[in-house]
Design brief:
- Chain B: Pfam families: BPD_transp_2 (PF02653).
- The complex is a heterodimer of chains A (about 290) and B (about 290).
- Chain A contains 11 helices and no strands.
- Chain A has about 290 residues and is an all-alpha fold.
- Chain A has a domain of about 190 residues.
- Chain B has one domain.
- Chain B is mainly alpha-helical and about 290 residues long.
- Chain B is built from 11 helices and 4 strands; from the N terminus they run ααααβββααααβααα.
- Classes of the chains: A mainly alpha (about 290), B mainly alpha (about 290).
Chain lengths: ~290, ~290
């Protein structure tokens, strides 16, 4: 017990220290608007990728539909903050997005998680595409044009806190009884079943948990980028997240952090050079996922 | 009733294209268990090759079709040799991501070389319409279905009745055992990629003729739908892929015909999920029981 609290305390100190470090660097001016934008995008992608890593890395279920849940979170936030454009509205929308994403994950997960490997990948990809097509055709989501002028309700501290919270949530989940159960299922489903683990239940738990974090990531994406469209949440977005998870190492949380930084860092680096060559160095918040792919 | 048959005709022509693509997916998946995401882009290259030879050398349709098949086959084999062969023994997710990478490379490479805009495919065959009992068929639709059927029958003959086909089936069942009886798996896998890619190239030229427009990203969505068709038909099964392709084509046209064209992609995925739940191995796939 003692060691556990000690570890928790160390992580808390590290998280707070990290916060102050970034804060100081912004005050001093080492981190300019461009780097800050990059850090926030990194943070959002860490949230998305750790959730996907829980599904792919820990429970071994190959999901290619993460962007669909991200879309649910993003659209919940965009729609609710239109009516309530304050912080309360944002947190309310975050909760609503998470709940909807979890419900959809249950509906999708119960039938599809019986499938394995590539079949599951294709089925989840199809499910995410169905979500996207529905969003593309609804009135409330403004169709294919997407939603813009979403109030800017998240800045880097919000994202930082959420990165810490979701990582904590995922790590705790992975190290709890549930986490051991899903890792047992990943290693050998039949053996796990033989020792009394219900594979469907735990696989679904991991899937729903991943969907909830994807919705958080989507909500933050919406209020940070301030413009969303259904085309942002296509197959390519799911694949980008998959690439982050694989690059960082499947089943490793620290890996997801590093992988994220590297992919995003390289992407921004290339973009910065490109813009410099173009004589255009302004900050572009709409610069997004395409490059690292 | 006339509208119904009209939609059947349209669905069959579109389905032929999906079926040709699905055959390539199913063969490659059957033999090395890889979702070859670059397959849709080989179809795009086939269409661009058709465009190029027709505009540049003023060849007729047959030459364009055969040369596109040859070029696509070579491209498929080169991709296999450079990108997938070094990863033969690495985790499957690595090969999958490499396939996505190859797909991006081909799409963006073509966008870089030719620009991202749409190109008008030259009309080498004058369009003619035939009307039977109020149902209109164009000669191009007939040609698409006929070419697709000929190629499918040809493929079936190659796979079932030649030494190469027998070796392909042997490698698909058990690669190590095939090696023991003197089959070189690399050779066979390369041949499989060649065959599949040739069919994709043919599909590319046919779709260019049918829709009159080609662009570097044209392979993405049909590629994924063709994979869905292969899964629906039972992956690894050649007749299954053909049936799946026609089914997806018909489904898409009918969803469009009843005024839900915005949801046609969603309909394809819904059918996919339903089929996977009811028949996890697809329509004609063999259900493999897991042994402990």
């Amino acid at each position: 017990m003692q060691a556990k609290w000690k570890a928790a305390l160390i992580w808390l100190v590290l998280a707070v220290a990290g916060f102050y470090l970034i804060n100081e660097l912004i005050v001093v001016g080492v981190i300019n608007a461009f780097i800050e934008n990059m850090l926030v995008t990194i943070g959002i992608n860490i949230i998305l990728a750790t959730g996907l890593n829980l599904i792919i890395g820990f429970s071994g279920q190959f999901s290619l539909g993460h962007a669909g849940f991200m879309a649910i979170g993003a659209y919940a936030t965009a729609i609710i903050t239109q009516q309530m454009s304050n912080t309360l509205g944002f947190y309310l929308s975050l909760g609503v997005g998470m709940v909807i994403a979890m419900l959809v994950a249950v509906v999708i997960g119960i039938p599809t998680l019986r499938l394995r490997g590539d079949y599951l990948a294709i089925a989840t990809m199809g499910a995410a595409e169905i979500i996207r097509v529905v969003i593309n055709n609804l009135k409330i989501t403004n169709g294919a044009a997407g939603m813009y002028n979403i109030p800017a309700l998240a800045n880097w501290p919000t994202v930082y806190v959420f990165v810490c919270l979701t990582t904590l949530m995922i790590v705790n989940f992975a190290r709890s009884r549930a986490g051991r159960a899903i890792q047992a299922i990943r290693e050998d489903e039949i053996a796990a079943e033989a020792v009394g683990i219900n594979p469907t239940k735990w696989k679904l738990a991991a899937f729903v948990m991943g969907a909830a974090t994807a919705a958080i990531g989507g909500s933050l994406h919406a209020v940070y980028i301030q413009t969303i469209a259904p085309s942002d949440f296509g197959i390519m977005q799911s694949i980008s997240l998959l690439i982050i998870v694989v690059l960082g190492g499947v089943g490793s949380i620290t890996g997801t952090f590093v992988g994220r930084n590297r992919a995003r860092g390289a992407g921004h680096g290339v973009a910065a050079i490109w813009r410099a060559a173009d004589g255009d160095l302004r900050l572009s918040p709409d610069f997004d996922y395409g490059v690292q792919a | 009733m006339q509208t119904f048959f009209q939609q059947v005709i349209n669905g069959l022509s579109l389905g032929s294209i999906y079926a040709l693509l699905a055959l390539g997916y199913t063969m490659v998946y059957g033999i090395i268990k890889l979702i070859n995401f670059a397959h849709g882009d080989i179809y795009m290259i086939g269409a661009f090759w058709g465009y190029y030879v027709i505009n540049q050398y003023h060849v007729d349709f047959g030459v364009a079709l055969v040369s596109a098949m040859a070029v696509s086959a070579i491209l498929g084999m080169v991709i296999e040799y450079l990108a997938y062969r070094p990863l033969r023994h690495s985790p499957r997710i690595t090969a999958l991501i490499t396939a996505i990478g190859v797909s991006y490379f081909l799409e963006n490479g073509m966008s870089f070389l030719f620009g991202a805009n749409t190109w008008n495919f030259p009309q080498v065959i004058g369009q003619a319409r035939y009307t039977f009992f109020g149902v209109t068929i164009t000669n191009i639709q007939l040609l698409i279905v006929a070419v697709a059927l000929v190629l499918m029958v040809g493929l079936q003959l190659i796979v079932q009745h030649t030494r190469m086909g027998t070796a392909m089936r042997a490698v698909a069942v058990d690669q190590e055992a095939a090696e023991l009886v003197g089959i070189d798996p690399n050779h066979i896998i390369s041949f499989t990629f060649g065959l599949g890619s040739a069919l994709a190239g043919a599909a590319g030229v046919l779709i260019g003729l049918y829709y009159n427009s080609i662009d570097p990203l044209m392979g993405m969505v049909p590629g994924i739908k063709a994979f869905v068709a292969a899964v629906v038909g039972g992956i690894g099964s050649i007749p299954g892929a053909a049936i799946g392709g026609f089914l997806i084509g018909l489904l898409e046209t009918f969803v469009q015909a009843i005024g839900l064209s915005a949801y046609k992609d969603a309909a394809v995925y819904i059918v996919l999920i339903i089929i996977l739940i009811v028949l996890p191995a697809g329509l004609l796939g063999k259900n493999v029981k897991e042994k402990v």
